[in-house]
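User: I would dearly like some help making sense of a protein record. This is the protein in question:
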Amino acid sequence: MVAQYTIAGRQVGSHVELIFSEQLSMATLGTTGLIAFLSIGGSKKSTEKGPSINATSSDEEKFIKDFMQKAEAEEKRTTISDPPAT
């Protein structure tokens, strides 16, 4: 007996054509690879750190950015110089 496959509602024997079997296997592998490739992609990371600054003027925005840079520098300096607590 010959193995029968149901494809799109039609019974197809495994002996129909060797080319058909190769095409079916290549289509299955290609589809699986495409799905894996697309699922690995993910979303792009935002380059902006923290929430957006809603300043009313450019001076206010500059002040906020400078303040945040100074605060981050101070935080790095204190965390580096402090020994880890045990």
The helical segments are 18-41, 58-81. The chain is about 55% helix and 10% strand. The two ends are 74 Å apart (CA to CA).
